[in-house]
TrEMBL record:
Organism of derivation: Anabas testudineus
UniProtKB keywords: Ubl conjugation pathway
Listed InterPro entries: F-box-assoc_dom, F-box-like_dom_sf, F-box_dom, F-box_only, Galactose-bd-like_sf
Protein name (Swiss-Prot/TrEMBL): FBA domain-containing protein
GO cellular component: cytoplasm; SCF ubiquitin ligase complex
Location of the FBA domain: 52-238
Amino acid sequence: ISSANVWTCCCLQWFSVPMEILEKLFLNLPPKEVVCTCRLVCRQWKEVADSEYLWTERCRRERYHLRDVSRTPKDWRLFYFLCKKRRNLLKNPREEDQLLGWKILEKVYDKSSNSYYFCKKSQLIDLEREGYNPEFMDHFQPDIKISDWYAPRWDCPSQYEICVELLNQKKKPVHTFAPETIVFGPWNIGIWHQMTHVFQNYGPGVRYIRFTHGRDKSKYWGGWYGLRITDSCVEICPSVETQ
């Protein structure tokens, strides 16, 4: 079934379709077709396409559950689409494809030890290219969640830095998350740590995200002699978290 076939049927028959039938039809159509095509047919179709039931039922069917049932979203359609589009916007977050998608910003070579010391790499995310148009970002301002995992080697000193910037159309920072550098001495147990931050209520104008992090005393990016970094992540999230 397609929205084009439903539209044609409605135009040819020209009768009022019962709400229950429309709901069943819309639940079996692609969600974008419901919003961009079906809701434009007439007032009745728009009412069904905008109904809370339609989008709560879609969430139930696709298992987008609320973590806290007492915090229901104001707009279930928005909640549904944010859940559906949610993904890691960083390319090659585990460096499994070497440095594909990353830009090296700083790499200092020490001839005496024949190794590279502090290194930084960065990635620029174009939100519109990823499917989040300017009108959507300005009006809804969805949460932007960043995450990074890091761990020191047990016998080497190392340090960890991260800086995540929300940028405007001219790629100028409007909001920045840059905590203090974390320093590890030698002879530690080398456990993994997670760095997280959520940007909220950041205002209109955000068009890009620049994610930059670095590690110390790394001989080369394919291996490590100091800090390890993996599973870097940038997500556009629903305002009510899912499980």
